[in-house]
Amino acid sequence: MYIHNHGTFVGRPVADMKYYKEDVSRYTRLHFRRANRFVLLSLAGACRCAHEQSIKKNTGVYLTTENGNLGDTETVLHQIFQMRQFPMPYNFINTMSNTASFYVAQSLELLGRNMTFSSKLLSFERGLELLHCDMVAGSVNEALIGGVDEASFSKTQFEAKFDRRYEDYNMVEGSCWLLMKKEAERAMGEISVVAAFADLGRLLGWIERQAFERPVFVAHGILVAPEDKKAIGRALPDATLFDPIGDIGYFDSAAASAVTHFLQRDGGACLIHVNKDTRGQFMAMRVEKY
Amino acid sequence: MTEKAFIRGKAVHCALGEEVGPVVSAMRAHQSHTTDVPLSLINLDYTRPYYRLPVKAGDPPPHSEAFFYAVLFRTVEKAIADAGLQPHEIEEMPIFFGSTSIDIPLYEETYRTASNVLSQTSSGYGNIANEIARHLGVKAGCYTFTTACTSSANGVLYASAMMGQGAFDRALVIGYDLFSNLGFYGFEALKLIAPPPYRPFDKHRMGVIMGEGCGAIVLDRCRRDANDFYCLGGANACDTHSVTTHDPEGHAIAAVMREALASAGARPEEIDVIKAHATGSYHNDLTECNGLKQVFGDHLPPVTGLKPFVGHTVGACGAIELVLLSEAVKAGFVPATLGFETPDEELGVVPMTDDLAIESGTFLLNYFGFGGNCVSLVVSNRD
């Protein structure tokens, strides 16, 4: 799967939605009057990725997310349970997170596959598996695939979920997208491997079988433990540590962010991104930048 | 697809019951049952119908976390028992979970006394599939689809496609949506909920009646019984007409049906019966019928809708309606569209008014949802 472009919109949360609407309006003529934060974050990244690209109408949209829309779901539950009134129709429609992938498709006039997908802490990697399946089947030749998440505002939730100190992370939000094609011509890079491993031993075995032609960088997901990192480091002794979470901040689509951040660097390098979920599963992505 | 994905095990828990045999018998007897749900949360003094799950003695109270997981785990365990899976087969089996509400029913009760619970405590969309994996001891991947009413249909689509490419030997597909006030009041706010009887494709149709349920399917590369169904193909596409309604001309819907047929290597004339999405809303039925006429022209096979038996189970309907249709066929029939009485000239499609005797065939199943999501699946139990 070849990477033809990337687009990123990541930053500290801004309370005023006008900020997001103005950003998105730079890339699309459609007006998203009732769009929520999640939709606008999705559009801001996807539209950057698609900007000035020749994109076919049957291009697929794969939106991966850990939490989807949170804001409108809270609003609707508040309207029903506290205000004791019907939810506003657009708030209700926006509780379905696939409204975001819909608006990406509508703004770019894309009629192909449209998927909103999640896989606890491995959403972006598993989403790439779905895209790979569709490319092998021939049902998709081009796709936008992105990771989108709002910032985690809850210290309690964050620390319970990850067993990490909230204060150690710069909390951001946003969306990071790749324009992927089956076609190699004029590609800027490729994702050559997306693989899952039941445990660290199998991951290390895979790493040892890899041959590298370019300088290697290695990045880790938030749940990869210090002892895992040490073992991975020993398996990749010449690799340079790459720390997108430290550089950019953390949000739940950090794996997608790691890839687009890597693609912003100079070419001629390879990224091994290792992620881990709460069940102890590992997933690795091998990304080449030409 | 190079390898076929056979339905090796199945289970369903819906308004008609929680055992496949009696549920199919109830469909043959044209039974259905709705419950009047009051809109008391917002101080209104009227009710709306809903296909609720039957209450069973000893069950935890509805709306509780214990009930949520009891229904889910029981259904999944029945599908696995039906498939006769060995422990190592379970361990290696990925999970494809589709839902609209995901974990909302778990959190709603707390909103009676609190706010912002979900954003402070929810563990994300992937959490329910992960809980199923923990419960069963599954070590393979978990895939969660949240594409509104097509969610679990997309689960079937990808599980069968990935299996067809040799990614794994078997998979568990689950569609699950329990009653949520968010969905119930949301649909009523959109003025989509109809009074009974539920009558898709009828001239006097008045909208949707929602339902709750769980469908679980074990797909396997090996065929266990000559009558087992398998997934021949399918497609997903986006209709960008509007976030709530599809292009009334039905072009996008026709395109997804054509792509599904092409991926299955089936011609329109090879389809024996169409299981329509048939929600009963004015626009959805019009759009679907226009799409059907484009694909099948004057040779439209028999068309039926299953929602009048169990309600519109939103994201779960992909798995639930696949189980209902395939098990009815294995029992020798496809049920008529319950509640249908008066043809609508504007639709130009008259669904089945009598049960069709059939034991094997090739079937097209349609699913369409908010966000322009369109899915068609082609399944067969014909050699």
What report would you give on this structure?
The complex is a heterodimer of chains A (290) and B (383). Chain A folds into 2 domains: 2-181, Peroxisomal Thiolase, Chain A, domain 1; 189-289, Peroxisomal Thiolase, Chain A, domain 1 (3-Layer(aba) Sandwich). Chain A contains 11 helices and 10 strands. Chain A has helices spanning 17-25, 37-50, 71-81, 89-95, 98-108, 123-137, 155-162, 200-209, 226-235, 244-248, 254-263, and strands spanning 2-11, 60-64, 114-118, 142-149, 173-181, 189-197, 216-220, 240-241, 269-276, 282-289. Chain A has a 10-stranded mixed β-sheet with strand order 3-2-4-5-1-6-10-9-7-8, with helices on both faces. The radius of gyration of chain A is 19 Å and the shape is globular. The mean pLDDT of chain A is 95. By secondary structure, chain B is an alpha/beta fold. Chain B has a single domain (5-380), classed as Thiolase/Chalcone synthase (Peroxisomal Thiolase, Chain A, domain 1, 3-Layer(aba) Sandwich), CATH 3.40.47. A 10-stranded mixed β-sheet of chain B has the order 5-4-6-7-1-8-14-13-9-10, sandwiched between helices. In chain B, helix 1 crosses helix 12 and helix 9 (251-264) packs across helix 10 (282-296). Strand 3 of chain A pairs antiparallel with strand 5 of chain B, so a sheet runs across the interface.
